[in-house]
Amino acid sequence: MNSTKTVSFIGAGNVATHLAKALYKNKFLIKQVFSKSFTNANSLAKKVNAQPIDLLTQLSPNAEIYIIAVPDDAIEKVLKQFPFKNKLVVHTSGSVGVDVFSKNGFSNFGIFYPLQTFSKNKIVDFTKVPFCLEANTKTNLKSIEAVAKYLSDKIYPINSEQRQLLHLAAVFACNFSNNMYQIAFEICNQHQIDFDILKPLIKETASKIEKYNPLEVQTGPAKRNDKKTIQKHLSLLENQKNYQEIYRLITESIVQSLVHKS
Amino acid sequence: MNSTKTVSFIGAGNVATHLAKALYKNKFLIKQVFSKSFTNANSLAKKVNAQPIDLLTQLSPNAEIYIIAVPDDAIEKVLKQFPFKNKLVVHTSGSVGVDVFSKNGFSNFGIFYPLQTFSKNKIVDFTKVPFCLEANTKTNLKSIEAVAKYLSDKIYPINSEQRQLLHLAAVFACNFSNNMYQIAFEICNQHQIDFDILKPLIKETASKIEKYNPLEVQTGPAKRNDKKTIQKHLSLLENQKNYQEIYRLITESIVQSLVHKS
Predict the structure, then answer these.
(1) Looking at the domain covering A6-158, what would its CATH class be?
(2) ipTM above 0.85, yes or no
(3) B163-261 — its CATH code?
(4) How confident is the model over A64-79, as pLDDT tens digits?
(5) How far is CA A237 from the centre of its chain?
(6) Residue A249: in which H helix or E strand, if any?
(7) From the CA of B130, how many Å to the nearest CA of chain A?
(8) Measured at the alpha carbon of residue A217, what is the angle toward residues A225 and A131, in degrees to the nearest 5?
(9) Nearest to A200 among B116, B191, B247 (CB)
(10) Are strands B29-34 and B6-10 parallel, antiparallel or unpaired?
(11) The pTM is what?
(12) What is the mean pLDDT of chain B?
């Protein structure tokens, strides 16, 4: 193996694009980019000096690693048509188990999961993105790690069961906290209050996690068990029963978390 | 009125300390610092070259503005003992209405509410802190604004009803999102997963709010209405019924928010 690493991409969406560009920048040779849509394959291939293909039978065997970055429910379809069962193949999904490879007759495989949300036009600083890796052998793990280390210092070996739970935790930490922002946004909107007022507080709350456990920095009426304010808030939500119920449940959750602490 | 402004503080806790130090730095004259505990009064007074006092009867009438920064339930007690009913007096609370002043016979009053969480040892960059202001007259509002403008560009006139709703919105956006971090932290902890893996994602989720409405950047299984993953997650929470219930409710809330959008 010489120092230039050769990678091919199956998929040309957000994750594939961000990863391929980052690897290309790090002197990787991007051999081919596959997409069902030749236009999409070509659009990414041009950026990373690769060959665009729209049939998996056109895949060259001359890549060291094949990175499958397609929607979760398309992974198995790709694997069934994949022409080489002995090459090192990885997928980038947080929730699809590693057994999808063995089930389909592969002998060298793994997971290459960058835990971050990727938006099309926003540049990703991969040095800050955690990579959760898994492979079927130590040698394959080393090969995958070697690629990830070019992009990030944050490499975590995570098995499929843990990755599933990590994905669940991410739903709470990110998707659900974003819904809390959304509810706050609506309350502001309904009452002609500028949502911008809350932005510095949202930022500060998230940045405290850097140094402290969330329990240590919990604040607010639930934390103080300030029943007068809690009651006032519940009555302000009288006409939005679903938000009232969320307020009640999470307040209870905060009270309980503090009981368990003490 | 000359260009030096004179302010006295009632209270010597986190908010008083951060505000007094910031005003002192901006060439304000801090006349007196009151605290029930002389030690606390003295500790802050030393830092801002003020006179420490522990009796409200010792208050000098020679300040232009009196800033009451004490716990919510102590504000009324302070007002009842306050020796000057005609001086401009403000409190810094998010949830105590402005009527607490009129009820207690004051004729010049207002609210000086910096919307941020203050931790004892963390330096506060006030230039990024929104100040929510209210006063009983235009002249008093102008006087309070003049003080706030030394500290921050973000000045918002907010009446007491709006401030109450803003406080409710802040509970969702900050206290509740922190509880979401806490649940994620627990899930990681229970399964020997390093919580650090989620930190960049938490940061990115919060920073998206800067440019986008929360609804636009909602991601995850609820957003995609991915019933298979939602069902898997609910079954992973089978032994934690309270978290299962929160998962169910917020998933429903996200689905609903997207229905209303389309």
Answers:
(1) alpha beta
(2) yes
(3) 1.10.1040.20
(4) 999 999 988 899 999 9
(5) 34
(6) helix A241-261
(7) 6
(8) 135
(9) B116
(10) parallel
(11) 0.87
(12) 93
